[in-house]
Structures are given as C-alpha cells and as structure tokens.
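Ticket #4471: structure export looks truncated?
Reporter: QA, pipeline team
Priority: medium

Steps to reproduce: submit the single chain below to the structure queue and open the exported record.
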Amino acid sequence: MSDSSPARPAPVLDVWCELQCPDCHAALDDLRALRARYGDRLEVRLRHFPLEKHKHAFAAAQAAEEAFAQGRGWPYVEAVLERVAELDRRGDPLLVEVARELGVDAEEVDTALVDGRHILIVDADHAEGKAIGVTGTPTYVIGGERLDGGKSQEGLRERVEEIADRLLAGQAGLEEQEGQA
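Actual output as written to the record:
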C-alpha cells in the first residue's frame, strides 16, 4: 500500500453520560486520564443519556452540544460535571454561567436551550443508548463491549485501557501486514 493511504480511524470509546449525575462526576478523573493517555489514538465520544430523575440533565446535554459546536465541548462537560450539586440547585442559569466562564458564546448557549437546536442529537443518543442496553450512567462502550460505570468505577479505567490497547495493537499489526503486501 502506498504512503498516501488514509490512516485507519482511531478506535472509539463511547461514554454514555449525564451531566447532572454524581457517578459521572466520579468518573471525571478516569475520563481525563484516558483522554490524556491516548490523545488522538482513541476517539472519546460523549453520548447523552439524560435520566428523568435529574430535571436539568436534558438542558445540560443540549448546552454541551452547543459548546461542542463552538469547539469547547470537553472543557464545558468537565466544568459542568465539577458542579453537579450546583446544577441541581440552579439549573439553566448555571449552564449559561459556565459557558461565559469558559469563553463559550453564552448567548448562543442560552438561545440553543430555547430554540432546541440540539434536541435531536440528545434524543438520538438516548434512543441508541436504550437500544444497546444502557440503563444508567456512566456506561462505556469500546470494541463492542459495554462496561457499566453506574454500579462502580472500580477497575473500569483499567478495563477500558486493556481493550483500547488491544484494539490499537490490532491496528498496528494490520498496518504492518499491509505494508508487507
């Protein structure tokens, strides 16, 4: 194969998350560590799974999508998860305040919450999560394996790393074989 062939896409880690969830807040350090360890070699995707018991979770998911649209999604998600208890008390005003603090266009976040421009993304994520058996957050899906972090975070990061390393090693092996062809 020539050197001009497109690079293989990075393995994907889908993280089914809810921004008002204390368990997702607890998983934040693991998410940061995974993103730091793998960088571009692993695509970490936030997938929304707002739970009915958290009244601001659906709005938080929409606000996060607006932050992603503005290129500041992960910093926004992390900042909101750091303030889960405050989100529970304050709701939408906190979502706009966090945007302003991070340099995200807060007026656009506020408008997105009113006009619902990101509702379809949030609804689609939730529906897909239900279809694959997600019942709580956080839930990780990597390499076709679902790992439920809502029960316990214990050992989850190590398991995700094990699967990611296996997927990346498999990719390296394929590229080497193709290079010899």
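Status: closed, not a bug. The export was complete when the record was re-opened. Leaving a note from the reviewer for reference: The CA atoms of residues 49 and 127 lie 8 Å apart.
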